[in-house]
Records
---
Amino acid sequence: MPAPSTHSTRPSLADGQTWSRSGQAQSAPASASHVSAFDPWIEVHAANLRHNAADVARLTKRPVLAVIKNNGYGLGAVNVAKVLDGQAAIAGFAVVKLQEALNLRDEGVTKPVLLMGPVDEVDLRLIVSRSIMPMVYTPIGDLLQREAARLGRSIPIHVCVDTGIGRVGVPYLSAAPLIRDLASRKGITIEGTMMTFTEDLEFDKEQRRRFSALADDLRVAGVRLGRLHAASTYTLFQHDDAAFDMVRPGMALLGIYPEARFKALGRLDLRTALALRVRVAYVKKLAAGTSAGYERAYMAKQDTWIATLPIGHTDGWPRLAAKGARVRINGRMYPVVASVSASHTIVEIGGEQTVRAGDIATLFDWQDGSRPEDVAAASAASVYDLTMHLNPLLVRRIV
Ligand SMILES: *Cc1c(COP(=O)(O)O)cnc(C)c1O
């Protein structure tokens, strides 16, 4: 039988840091009775977030509409917004879910907020009363005008044009009449006009031409379009002439290069702004010929120490991490082996017991070899899936 190591004393949470559930106030630390020291946690690196926002502004010389949809790409939309709200480079925040937009206002975020998701009449009434801008692409001029009259002030909106991505947005060929109608109404202010690139290198150029032609025609005719914006993270690396009046990145703010080759371009100096860590739950020695994991996915060829981490795919850690990802414990890298199950990950330690229960395992952070990009590559995962699938219930901690 493998000999289990004895547990170390239970690690303490009390380290003077502020803990929060995703999307909740930093000022309301989770009660220690509700958070186990063995629960995985996410660290939000405030200085790196700020650095990345400033670096995007440096490169593009444009204001930044920070996309913090999908739970702030895993960091918590409120956490990211609070860190960036005071930054001069930040023009505002864009989210997709109604609740996320409301959370930003509830938590006192002051910058403009754009809701890029669909809204019905009830939602619209609610968001404009909370100074949240709708993204508009259907003929709702009458409705907006009525709401503006009720509020007694103009409603700022962004108009979304589809130049070829084929999802939301008014098709570019029929956009002019809609935009003219919206712009002509008392009570509606077009603060921005936007499109989304397909991120197909050649077709992006055609999309840019379509958008520019539309905007030029309307502006010549005296239609106020507000700021034109289109550029996501990909665009920042791939196109020099697509920043328009404002840029709209998400992933770059987290300091993540969506494609490895982008780093070598040297255009942006991105610094990873998130980490995922968990304490080792259990360490034991497997005798040669002993298996670990479902379907006996791992077989010890010789006597081998293994560590169990209390984190699994339910937390957002990729199932395929066992195909090649490595975690860092006490400064050394160890391979994930066997299979990642819902709540457990098994790490191969080797012939010597260099790891103890209670030690901190880093699944990813900002160090070379441990970045989210490294884990995504080793797990055959998209780095977008890696961050956006992090379980919203995990504790987020601003560092
Ligand atoms: C997600 C999103 C972005 C940001 O994309 P990144 O690749 O994370 O920079 C920009 N615009 C829209 C409409 C989006 O949905």
---
Amino acid sequence: MQFVSTRGGSEPVSFSEAFANGLAPDGGLYVPKNLPMLPSDLLVEDALPYPALAWDFLSLFDSDHDSEKLIDIIDKSYGNFSDTMSAPLQQLGENVFVLELFHGPTLSFKDFGLQLIGNLFEEQIERTGQSINVLGATSGDTGSAAINGLAGKKGVNAFVLYPKGRISDLQERQMTCTGADNVFPIPIEGSFDDAQAIVKELMGDLKTKEDLRLSAINSINIVRILAQAIYYVHAYTQLPPENRDDVNFVVPTGNFGNIFAGWMVHQMGLPVDQFVIATNQNDILCRLFNTGDYEPEPVAPSYAPSMDIQLASNFERFLYYHNEKNADTTLSQMAEILTKGSLHIPDFDASNFEAVACSDEDILNNIRMVKEEYNYVVDPHTACGFQDLDPAKTHVVLATAHPAKFPDIINKAIGETPTEDSLEALKKKKQVTYPVEATADAVKAFIEKNSA
Ligand SMILES: *Cc1c(COP(=O)(O)O)cnc(C)c1O
């Protein structure tokens, strides 16, 4: 399978090249040239084991690795999940299900993409003999998942910038207590946007990118989207047959990556009625899908911090398909966002989507309601997915993180403090950080000095 850029200015590339490039050279995002149909036997009665399903799915896109290699990479990626189903579906009520995506090593759905990415980088380094430096910025979960996926791997060093004091203590510990000498968690003064701006500046300078052999881990990488598409199929095949008509997936959303993965697999034939976009008070996507107007506002910190985002980069992929794969239109729309700061999309077709937004108060109420009604504890991000659920229809709410990652907010809502063994163990470990001045030059110099 070939991958093309949403902006049309780059050559089509293979799976491995799209993976290695991250961002396409023209600044666009890679998408599969054609979306293949899901083989119908994937949607059979009983759920396949996760690695088998992952292989069936990924081999539709990856024509670079031979079967044995791909099987090996997949087994390494998902073999360390705490639940044998990897993404188990729990039934809470007659029509209400949660898809638990927090059984990976760092307890958020980010592990599905980043464990695979870590093992693909390892294979790439073995194949090319070229060591790499991975650079990213995080508001919490991406950084910990990326660091876990790369810790101890040969030929790769990981540099992850995060806003000092603005991520949770446990998220910080997941990054800083690994004991691995190839990971460099870098606290910087400022916000997530400041950290992200430094990464974008270094990545955007093609000479620096090449000199430092930089690779990206954020959800601009198409492999993360492909990896996340798999669990939608896994969820569907775990539903009781009587619930398989008119399935609604509810997705706590920030960057539009996770929900785009679901929408993509729906285009490939997964039967879905609606996708529900669930945002926190940073409701740009909710407003967009209700009005057709993309209008970023300043980020307001919320109880669901991993969704405190206003520039949903993966929306570009949806826009490309909405434009019926017209890259010229997509290019000019992305330019308009850059110059005008907003975009009006004429005849915006949101027919596959509904959208809800949650205030912090709603998040607390939803955590309480789910506990009272179903005796189940959801994390603050997942709580956004329980806003105004219609009990007449089948809903699968994606549980994006383990509640024990956010003990203070859960305690505020229901007076209980959830715990989890791997997180408890972190509290006894030594933290190692590498503070660097919050400028692109200082970060560049630090990477040069500590390069793989
Ligand atoms: C990253 C994250 C989200 C948002 O996912 P997107 O792909 O950015 O929409 C939601 N919940 C949690 C816990 C996350 O870590």
